[in-house]
Amino acid sequence: TLIGALSVSLVMAAQPAWADDGYALWLRSIAKVDRQAVVTALGDSATLTLAASELRRALPMETPAIVVATASAPSVRALTLPFSTLGDEGYLVCNVTLNGKRVILVAGNSDRGTLYGAFALIRHLATGGQAAAVNLRSAPKVKLRVLNHWDNLDESVERGYAGQSIWDWWTLPDFRDPRYTDYARANASIGINGTVLNNVNAKADSLTAPYIAKAAALANVFRPWGMRVYLSARFSAPIELGGLKTADPRDPAVAAWWKAKADEIYRAIPDFGGFLVKANSEGQPGPRDYGASHADGANMLAAAVRDHGGIVMWRAFVYAETDPEDRAKQAYSEFKPLDGTFADNVLVQVKNGAIDFQPREPFHPLFGAMPRTPLMIEFQITKEYLGFATHLAYLGPLFTEVLDAKTGQKPGETVADVVDGQAEHHKLSGMAGVANIGRDRDWSGSTFNQSNWYAFGRLAWDPDLSAEEIARSWAAQTFGTDRQVIDTVTAMMMGSREAVVDYTGALGLAHLMATGHHYGPGPWVSDLARPEWNPTYYHRADANGIGFDRTASGSNAVGQYAGSVAKSFAKPETTPESMLLWFHHLPWDRRMASGRNLWEDLVAHYDRGVAYVAQMQRQWEGLRSKIDAERWQKTATYLAVQEREARWWRDASLAYWMSVNHRPLPAGVRAPE
Ligand code: GCU
User: Fold this and answer.
1) Exactly one of 384, 413, 442, 607 is catalytic; which is it?
2) CA 238 → CA 201, 229, 292, distances in Å?
3) Which of 116, 167, 191, 197 is 20 to 30 A (C-alpha) from 434?
4) Catalytic: 356?
């Protein structure tokens, strides 16, 4: 049968030799055969042509005829399909009779929608779905699905662990590395529609004519794949580039400089997305330098891009060394009063938690607290605090834990409702992910890190997907449809982030890492000039207890949360144990749900984290014969590194805690080495 033939050809599909190094990402599991005859495009735009060629490239031998089209094609219009609910970028994929022939129709209202539909069909087939019964329909819930590259103009990548930047600024704009196309294609396959090319710690040079030309060359490559280019803007650029005396956003000369700069960019990149700005944070210039507010700064830039349809993504990751307030509170204190004062083409971009991409943080209290402002969420795909490229940590559960969190602001409202704009019917909505992409052959430093890029894209499209279904679908597309492989890989992935939490410091502890590079333990560090950079600032451990009192008797960060959420965080008894020490300072003897005391429980978490990694090693060993040697070996090696380093985290941390609390290890627990 057709179905039988399809699944056989999927399983048997020969992998091209170059695929084994991970370069092909998740777009690899179906044979490449020339299916010219099978796929027809009704129209000849660059994007529709890509949609057709992607299908030809991916399809197995036995496939029914496929037509790619937009809703406006006359023969498609005649079918009266439900296009009205699909918006600009949605798609449907279904079996229809077109001009008297049974075909699979892949169509959206725009050719971008059609391209997403083509990738959805490829995903459907690559994950074991059948062509005969295909019926897919989806529209993105979030409008701006954007990667943030922390890539510098010298081609280093801040917090990047996959090699140098993929942007070769030196040879751009003339040479357009084919890799740029592969990059855009991978992004389009998961629905990502924008990319900020340069680091938030921006250099003014990125706004000079030569760099605008380079960005334009990239934008030309990305455009047919539905991706727009954005730039991080250095707020003081009018001084550095324009020779002005000030960058005060209220100064008309400053506003005029930015307007002229925006016009210049739009002449080169007519669909330029807009600016991302890190202002008055970690030494970056900003409107506060002049006594102006973040809204003054954002609105001035927003006015510069407004006529071109551009937007401004203004980051709320703001804290000042001069501010004695709990660092976890500062962004809320600064931004909440500004709600309602931002221009309508501004989004405020808020990190998922109030500190900085820790293995676990409670959701940022700004979500739900600024109903009159579209808030983008910013996740970190690159694993700055979760073991760089070497440790296996699937971030799907981290992302969904935050997206699914109830804000407490309105009945039932979740962070996802705020982010996708549903809560307040905002016109703009967005999700940003700090990219983990570099020049490594496998793009992300390891095969499993690719899953975090993938999960980010899938969740930006639909924040209501489950981390597990994303993991399964990634596993099938990455390693093939063998049941044992998918089950094992998914099982490894699903607990892997919690394992990192366990071996780096569980129960709501955070920011215990070594200084500067952020790899490895450093809970003892207390001598950094900025108090809020010291791990001791966060854990506050002494002989009696541990944790940060953020209740009314402490910093009262709890007071920034609302309703039932604030209520539950206010007392240790009602705070989830996973966040206990984030909000409370408690005695080592405190009784925990496990029946153990806090100290014993903490030790058990360290042990559990180490054991999980050892278990992943065994699971992976069991897949040796089922995965190509190159990807298998690299992963096995990295798991061995991770196991060693999980023990390092455990042992160093326990030795330190014991030096503070002078407690023995619970009976039967292995002493730190
Ligand atoms: C973290 C990270 C920095 C980065 C900053 C930011 O602090 O360590 O490298 O610049 O976040 O998000 O702006």
Assistant:
1) 384
2) 16, 22, 16
3) 116
4) yes
